[in-house]
Every structure is written in structure tokens, then in C-alpha cells.
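Title: Comparing notes on inverse folding

I've been comparing how different people in this forum approach sequence design from structure. To keep things fair, I'm posting one structure and asking everyone to reply with a full sequence. Here's the target:
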């Protein structure tokens, strides 16, 4: 069993975008991406409810064991692999699913 739950499995992921009421072409572009790749999910708000609401909606719709939240992934997509690498480096999981060196409830 790998110490990293998703290490090496880059085919099992989802990208969740929250359109917070933008007036540009973001939603149309994201909807087209969803049509070509089911791993792309789009949540559309009728207006901007703020960053907390957007992140909460993304978390609520995620199905993965690990979530890498970002408030602007489309602005810096090159940061996503770096975020993943840092996550895998910093998270060492025990066999029972808890993070080593911490107390899990």
C-alpha cells in the first residue's frame, strides 16, 4: 500500500470550477470543457456570493479523497502540479487513514 493515497494515479481526478456570477465567457468555455471531459465539473452561481460560498460548493461537490483548493486556478494552471507535489510531500498517511504525527478524532 502506498503511503500516498493517490500517488501515481493522475487519471483519477476531477476539476471543479465555480462560476461565481461572472459576466465574461467563463461559463460557456467551462461548459464546453465539461462536454469533452466528464472530469471537468462546473457549478454556476447566479451572482457572486463570495469566496467562502464558492469554496464550500466546490467541497460539497467533490468526490476525491484529497482536495486542492484554489481561488484562481484558471489564472495560473501551472500551479496545480506544484500544489499536488507539495501535498504529496507534506502528507504522509498511516495505514488507518490518519496523518502520521497527528491525532485524528
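Reply #1:
Here's my take.
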Amino acid at each position: 500500500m502506498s503511503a500516498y493515497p493517490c500517488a501515481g494515479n493522475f487519471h483519477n481526478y476531477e476539476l471543479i470550477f465555480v462560476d461565481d456570477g461572472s459576466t465574461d465567457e467563463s461559463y460557456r468555455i467551462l461548459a464546453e470543457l465539461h462536454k469533452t471531459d466528464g472530469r471537468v465539473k462546473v457549478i454556476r452561481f447566479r451572482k457572486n456570493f463570495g469566496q467562502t460560498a464558492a469554496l464550500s460548493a466546490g467541497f460539497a461537490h467533490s468526490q476525491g479523497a484529497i482536495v486542492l483548493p484554489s481561488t484562481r486556478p484558471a489564472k495560473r494552471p501551472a500551479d496545480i502540479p506544484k500544489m499536488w507535489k507539495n501535498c504529496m510531500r507534506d502528507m504522509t498517511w498511516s495505514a488507518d487513514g490518519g496523518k502520521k504525527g497527528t491525532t485524528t478524532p
